[in-house]
């Protein structure tokens, strides 16, 4: 992984603080510390870093992915378990020689092979392609996309991990803490409190939709976010609170509710037109139960009001947001 940083002056200065974070010098940096004669050139700092601490390391030293600019730091991420003793500051000579032998610079690779021959006491080394290692359960670097990350206890998915953002988990923890203290709030309020952009807030919500706290669920209703009891815990809560189960909705109410859910915002006249029958009574029932509401952004002064669904509608169906509604079937027009 090639990184660059404008805050680090030279390789020796870069590598000094790294040792305090359980890192060890590798490649050309290790060769320099071991006194090996490196070819002339401005070689980057090379260190082995624990995979679990890689994100903190990158953020702590303000590193960024190198494009066409000069590479300052080469990070070699090591998965668990950490193979080096905690007191070690430079990799063993054999590992340093292997690092050099893998270099794309011919002179450095030649030095590595020469050192390997010396260390092998006359044995001729051979190289084989490393077996492909499974991706970690957590992505190392932030990435884009809203692909849900599988729950840690569920089967591993390399595709989901590749698109997941470690920072989303940290933001999600802060979001849950705020929801626990303040209850539901508007999205803009959460963004301001967490000091994150709306995009990062969306990714934190996506993380909680897939990996919610035990017994809870994230509810996104319009511009409002709140934590509610998980759908499968509903009967338990109702029994504890001695609250009777709500009466089931009639077929007509379900029809109207479906129309509002998929067509919102929608007027009362449009609902009656779609159903080809007067739906005023059914709409009033849904309004009384709080499953639909008049959208305050529309209506007034002789204009028709528009109906939208509420958070109670999402709770009734056990949905986290309207995005979880099943898609409408595609109707083919047959002449």
Uncertain stretches of 5 or more adjacent residues: 5-21, 135-163
Please report the total strand number as a whole number.
11
Helix content: 25-40%
Distance between the termini: 59 Å
Shape: elongated
SSE pattern, N- to C-terminal: EHEHEHEEHHHHEHHEEHHEHHEEH
Q: How large is the share of residues in beta strands?
A: 5-15%
Q: What is the C-alpha radius of gyration, as a whole number of Å? A: 29 Å
The mean pLDDT is 76
Total of helices: 14
Side by side, the strands of the main sheet go 2-3-5-1-4
- Helix/strand/pairing category: alpha+beta
Give the biggest sheet: 5 strands, mixed
How many domains make up the coordinates?
3
What would you note in describing this structure?
The two termini are 59 Å apart. Helix 7 (166-182) crosses helix 9 (198-210) and helix 11 crosses helix 13. The chain folds into three domains: 2-119, no CATH class; 136-245, Arc Repressor Mutant, subunit A, CATH 1.10.10.10; 251-324, Arc Repressor Mutant, subunit A, CATH 1.10.10.10. With 335 residues, the protein is α+β, with helices and mostly antiparallel strands. It is 39% helix and 13% strand. Residues 5-21 and 135-163 have low confidence and may be disordered. Strand 7 (216-221) and strand 8 form a beta hairpin. The protein is built from 14 helices and eleven strands.
């Amino acid at each position: 992984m090639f990184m660059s940083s404008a805050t680090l002056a030279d390789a020796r200065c870069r590598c000094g603080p790294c040792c305090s974070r359980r890192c060890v010098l590798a490649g050309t940096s290790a060769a320099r510390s071991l006194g090996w004669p490196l070819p002339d050139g401005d070689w980057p700092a090379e260190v082995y870093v624990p995979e679990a601490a890689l994100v903190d390391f990158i953020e702590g030293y303000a590193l960024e992915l190198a494009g066409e600019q000069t590479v300052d730091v080469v990070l070699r991420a090591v998965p668990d378990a950490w193979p080096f003793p905690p007191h070690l500051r430079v990799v063993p000579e054999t590992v340093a020689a292997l690092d050099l032998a893998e270099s794309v610079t011919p002179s450095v690779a030649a030095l590595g092979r020469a050192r390997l021959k010396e260390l092998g006491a006359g044995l001729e080394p051979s190289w084989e392609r490393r077996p492909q290692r499974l991706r970690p359960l957590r992505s190392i670097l932030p990435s884009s996309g809203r692909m849900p990350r599988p729950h840690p206890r569920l089967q591993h998915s390399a595709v989901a991990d590749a698109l997941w953002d470690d920072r989303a988990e940290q933001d999600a923890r802060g979001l849950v803490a705020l929801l626990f203290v303040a209850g539901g709030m508007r999205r803009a309020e959460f963004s301001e409190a967490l000091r994150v952009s709306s995009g990062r807030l969306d990714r934190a919500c996506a993380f909680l939709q897939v990996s919610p706290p035990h017994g809870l669920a994230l509810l996104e209703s319009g511009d409002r976010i709140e934590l509610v009891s998980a759908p499968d815990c509903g009967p338990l809560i109702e029994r504890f609170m001695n609250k009777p189960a709500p009466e089931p909705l009639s077929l007509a109410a379900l029809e109207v509710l479906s129309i509002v859910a998929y067509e919102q915002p929608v007027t009362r006249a449009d609902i009656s037109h779609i159903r080809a029958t007067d739906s005023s009574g059914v709409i009033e029932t849904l309004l009384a139960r709080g499953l639909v509401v008049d959208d305050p952004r529309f209506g007034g002064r002789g204009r028709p009001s528009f109906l939208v669904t509420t958070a109670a509608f999402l709770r009734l169906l056990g949905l986290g947001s309207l995005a979880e509604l099943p898609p409408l079937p595609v109707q083919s027009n047959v002449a």
